[in-house]
Amino acid sequence: MYLIGLTGGIASGKSTVARRLVEHGAIHLDADQLARRVVEPGSTCLQSIVDEFGQGVLRPDGTLDRQRLGELVFRDEGARARLNAIVHPAVRELSGRLIAKAEEEDPQAVVVYDVPLLVEAQVDHPFDLVVVTSAPKRAQVKRLVEERGLDPIQAEARVDAQVSDEERRAVADVVIDTGGTIAHTMSQADALWVDIERARKAARERPSG
């Protein structure tokens, strides 16, 4: 199995790169989706969040009110750290199981694990490659305004709340510049796939022991 950690700032083109790699045959795991799964009604993770933050973070139907919880932790670093201490280990455990399952089903699988908080959460799966998508701040803000309907001040706050691009680049094996056109981003993802295939072929041909 070949395991890729894909990370980058908000609206930095991660999903575009992930989608392209899936078109080439990769399996995609999305940490945001896994974070939703671990807090489904009845989960120990959701109960821990309610114990920590109160019943007010639940909707009437018993599901997590993500917007309400987000408002509680967005500007409170201590609260955010307490939430992360509940959610991150649960996501780590689930992602580990899904990665192992993918390898069991196909030992030659290429798995792209899309982790927005790879740096912040100190995700330490044994990645063969860490790929960082990088766009200028103005491009990220513009996308958040135009594609997600945020107002410019909100959008800027969201970008500023994340770790810096420099910190992400420090852990990167490959940086994909997503500040230009989608075609430019796609062509870099295509080139990355060629490199991955080359690395996998070399690994298969390497004599063992």
Can you put this structure into words, describing what you see?
- The chain is of the alpha/beta class and 209 residues long.
- It has a single domain, classed as Rossmann fold (3-Layer(aba) Sandwich).
- It has helices spanning 14-23, 31-37, 44-53, 66-74, 77-105, 137-148, 152-160, 165-171, 182-205, and strands spanning 2-8, 27-30, 110-114, 129-134, 174-177.
- The model has no long low-confidence stretch (mean pLDDT 92).
- Pathway: Cofactor biosynthesis; coenzyme A biosynthesis; CoA from (R)-pantothenate: step 5/5.
- ATP binds at residues 11-16.
- The active site is at 181.
Write a concise keyword list for the protein shown above.
alpha/beta, 5 strands, 5-stranded parallel β-sheet, 9 helices, 209 residues, 12% strand, Rossmann fold
The CATH homologous superfamily name equals P-loop containing nucleotide triphosphate hydrolases
Please indicate the count of domains: 1
- Give the overall form: globular
Please write the string of helix (H) and strand (E) elements: EHEHHHHEEHHHEH
Fold-level CATH name: Rossmann fold
Helix/strand class: alpha/beta
**Mean pLDDT across all residues, rounded?**
92
End-to-end CA span? 18 Å
Binned strand content: 5-15%
Low-confidence regions: none
Strand order of the largest sheet: 2-3-1-4-5
What is the radius of gyration? 18 Å
Question: Biggest sheet: strands, sense, closure?
Answer: 5 strands, parallel
